[in-house]
Amino acid sequence: MNRELGAFLQARRSEVVPEDVGLPSGPRRRVRGLRREELAELAGISVEYLARLEQGRTAQPSESVMEALAGALHLTDTERGHLFDLARPGPRRRRPSGRVRRELTQLVDRMDVPALVIGHRLDVLAWNRLGDALFPGLCDRGANLARYNFLQKPARTLYLGWDEVLRATVGQLRLATGQHPDDPALTALIGELSVHSERFRTLWAGRVVRERAHGVKRFAHPVVGELELYYETFGLSGDDGQRLYTLHPEPGSLSEESLRLLASWSV
Known about the structure:
- The chain has 267 residues and is α+β, with helices and mostly antiparallel strands.
- It has two domains: 3-87, lambda repressor-like DNA-binding domains (434 Repressor (Amino-terminal Domain), Orthogonal Bundle); 102-265, 2-Layer Sandwich (Beta-Lactamase).
- Helices cover 48% and strands 13% of the residues.
- The chain has a six-stranded antiparallel β-sheet.
- Strand 1 (115-118) and strand 2 form a beta hairpin.
- Helix 2 (36-43) packs across helix 3 (47-54) and helix 4 (63-72) packs antiparallel against helix 5 (77-87).
């Protein structure tokens, strides 16, 4: 049985705006999103088969069915990848060791912008001096970015747009559960966050998946004030799911001056 696949399909079906797929919407519509019958018609499958999928009673649907559902639901590339992870789980992946190569640690230390190495559970595996200074109270042995964002007080005032950061954090963890369904440490982390954060429980129930490789983050840093930084995330080779996360300011900007000040303060 595949309850996670069924729950993901139901969640995405409830988020589709009928007009976006050429269906009428009006005051008589009693359900949010698409009806099961509507999605089945758009995907070219029977309502009975879709019901079995959503109820977790179909073990391994075909690739053509998954492609049809992904198209009908207008899934993003990230959501489509997650759908296939849930529908056709491959052989068990090697459990990540959490160790960072010495050469990578040396590279991070030499970078003149904030840099972190993040694992698939959002564990902070390595960092440089500016990364430590930018995220007060985060960087330490055993640190985890999801715990920091949801459970630690500094995060509430550090981010300008804290709720969007929380949504992105949950989206990344959702992706990780599809890729590493047999990881007990990941399961334990999700349980811990669910127990201690009502906001996490609410967002987790939405089954949103996200993978944000680049963008802009704004901070209200307790030492240097407001910062606007571009972030870039680089997937690292190997099977450990590690990513290099860097942040940099616009050249010549006030944020560049503030980051330079932060660097001098953190010496």
